[in-house]
């Protein structure tokens, strides 16, 4: 009798445990990679995405964003998301090229005439094509964030013409195209992790780097390299991405909810981005940076001709798509 009660109780307990286990197995714990610090537009937006997606899926997806690059550099994180070790991320599309060749297009200097054109392309057919190419490599792009335009900065002198770059060493993001880009101006492009740039500028390992105002400011690079020259040579979008392995585990309804949350977060990011760009410019100038306009931008564009020619020679199949994007 006693034994029977005991085993009934044990049975009931086992059933409860089984239900709980099944319940928690349904809730996915997603880890998110983010290179930026607290308060940065991308960070605020990515945190909004995490919160909204969790609410919209009624907790079936629980998301945590790890800020400040604590989960590693972007090239490493791209590999981790492919392996499903990281579930979501905000990636700059520059270092995506080595993994997803079609996305190299976005790293061609002066591809877009401005941010509006970039939005038209990425929010439309071009964005879908990049997403499809990324999905083949295990990464799903849900939405596109702004990254403004990138300009050259260095510790030596204002840059006003391509020849000023000659002999100088510039840190670039991980992509051969950026090495070629600096090389086409007679400089030396060195791929390096974002986190190492400040120290390398300070110690003179590199003379300069290139980035938008918000990153130039948030990293304090402006303290180590005070000449910021508005070349605006790259306008590269950033993605909100999810590991395909994690994505495929969601129901169609939850996928739709997570995608909506990502797109909503992009609206927030773009709004905050526009504000931060202006604020950051003021902050770096107040902090001692010297910002110079580049009167003859066409000279920089012309210097990039060999980069394009070489790229098209190696990727003739992309020529039509590039033209299409430029016409968007
Ligand atoms: C910033 C991007 C970030 C890149 C960084 C870099 O937002 O994703 O990692 O530039 O230069 O503007 O590495």
TrEMBL record:
InterPro entries: DctP_fam (IPR018389), TRAP_DctP (IPR004682), TRAP_DctP_sf (IPR038404). Keywords: Signal. Residues 1-27 form the signal peptide. CDD domains: PBP2_TRAP_SBP_like_3 (cd13671). Gene3D superfamilies: Bacterial extracellular solute-binding protein, family 7. It holds the Pfam family DctP. This is TRAP transporter substrate-binding protein. It comes from Pseudahrensia aquimaris.
């Amino acid at each position: 009798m006693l034994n029977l009660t005991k085993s009934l109780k044990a049975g009931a307990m086992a059933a409860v445990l089984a239900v709980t286990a099944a319940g928690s197995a349904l809730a996915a714990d997603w880890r998110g990679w983010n290179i930026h610090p607290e308060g940065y537009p991308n960070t605020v937006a990515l945190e909004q995405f995490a919160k909204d997606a969790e609410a919209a899926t009624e907790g079936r997806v629980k998301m945590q964003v790890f800020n400040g690059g604590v989960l590693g550099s972007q090239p490493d994180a791209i590999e981790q998301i492919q392996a499903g070790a990281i579930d979501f991320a905000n990636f700059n599309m520059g270092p995506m090229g080595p993994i997803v060749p079609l996305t190299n297009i976005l790293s061609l200097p002066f591809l877009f005439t401005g941010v509006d054109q970039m939005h038209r392309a990425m929010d439309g057919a071009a964005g879908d094509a990049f997403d499809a190419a990324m999905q083949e490599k295990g990464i799903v792009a849900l939405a596109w964030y702004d990254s403004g335009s990138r300009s050259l900065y260095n510790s030596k002198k204002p840059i006003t013409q391509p020849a000023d770059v000659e002999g100088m060493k510039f840190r670039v993001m991980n992509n051969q195209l950026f090495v070629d880009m600096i090389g086409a101006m007679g400089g030396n492009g060195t791929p390096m992790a974002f986190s190492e740039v400040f120290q390398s500028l300070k110690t003179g390992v590199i003379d300069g780097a290139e980035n938008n105002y918000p990153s130039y400011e948030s990293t304090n690079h402006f303290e180590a390299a005070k000449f910021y020259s508005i070349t605006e040579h790259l306008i590269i979008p950033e993605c909100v991405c999810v590991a395909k392995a994690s994505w495929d585990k969601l129901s169609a309804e939850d996928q739709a909810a997570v995608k909506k949350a990502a797109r909503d977060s992009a609206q927030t990011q773009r709004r905050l981005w526009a504000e931060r760009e202006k604020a950051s410019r003021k902050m770096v100038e107040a902090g001692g940076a010297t910002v110079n306009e580049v009167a003859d931008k066409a000279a920089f564009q012309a210097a990039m001709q060999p980069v394009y020619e070489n790229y098209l020679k190696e990727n003739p199949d992309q020529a039509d798509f590039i033209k299409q994007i430029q016409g968007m």
